[in-house]
Design a protein that fits this description.
This protein has helices at 45-61, 65-76, and strands spanning 19-23, 29-34, 39-42. It is of the alpha+beta class. It has one domain. Strands 1-2-3 form a 3-stranded antiparallel sheet, covered by helices on one side. It starts with 18 loop residues before the first strand and ends with a helix.
């Protein structure tokens, strides 16, 4: 799924580094966060829940998938 976040959200910067949230078969969520020198896998809900909350807030404020695709199509009209 692709969703475009409004440019104005850039100043809020929900995430300041690459974050992957993984839902396991037992429905638990783990995070994998990368820094410049290493990656960190975390299963502790006290660390994972704030990242999951931030992700859901980012997703809620972004364009819908349909609106994001429409935006890409509109922008491509002027390119070869």
């Amino acid at each position: 799924m692709v969703q475009v976040a409004p440019f104005r959200m850039g100043e809020l910067r929900t995430f300041n580094r690459p974050v992957n949230l993984l839902t396991l078969s037992d429905r638990s969520v783990i995070s994998y966060v990368e820094s410049q020198t290493q990656g960190h896998l975390d299963r502790d809900p006290a660390s994972v829940v704030p990242l999951l909350t931030a992700y859901h807030q980012l997703q809620a404020e972004s364009l819908s998938q349909a609106a994001s695709v429409a935006m890409f199509r509109q922008l491509r009209k002027g390119t070869p």
